[in-house]
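Hey L., structure's done. Input below.
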Amino acid sequence: MAKTMLEIRDLHAWYGESHVLHGVNLSVKEGEVLTLLGRNGAGRTSTLRAIMGLTGSSKGSIQVQGKECIGLSTHGIARLGVGYCPEERGIFSSLSTEENLMLPPVLFQGGMGIGEIYSMFPNLQERAKSQGTRLSGGEQQMLAVARILRTGARLLLLDEISEGLAPVIVHKLADMVRALRAKGYTIVMVEQNFTFAAPLADRFLVMEHGVVQQEFSQAELPARRADLHEYLGV
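Output:
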């Protein structure tokens, strides 16, 4: 049996006085790919942000490899082996591609080296000396993911990595997720693009109003199309 990488129990979170998560429960095994589905405002991104300690306040339990995260600083949570790729990407425009890539510290042995990253993302090698602002949207997304792979993190939180990108880039990102899964990474993805997410995840959780409403496996996907249409309109 694979060990549990992430365990969330009765998670509530707030931004100021706005109560955004209302008792989220989920569990992710080591090496599993889990996708959080739902409409905008359902609480998917807030769940990732709460894991990283980036909501205003939270209560409940978030455990990474058995270690409690509630109350830890964001950098302390990162040192538990968590890598977060936010939707806004956070590329430094004044730095080159390679400078952006080298910016985060290596926190654990086993992080990908530059050569391995360039093998996975050849576009980044071609644009190594280009400023961050001169990269295409797809190249910026590749760079945002590549940065966290250097740190040695084994639990990856990926927020809407396919959003607004050309189909050829989306296809490359799907290949990346498959490659990372084959290397044993644990991945939690927030995705609006169901066509992208459907073949990649082992399990799917559907969120609405800050709670998990539905859970199903890859094998159950064909039989749950009606539920997905109700919650997502797909």
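The mean pLDDT is 92. The chain is about 30% helix and 30% strand.

-- N.
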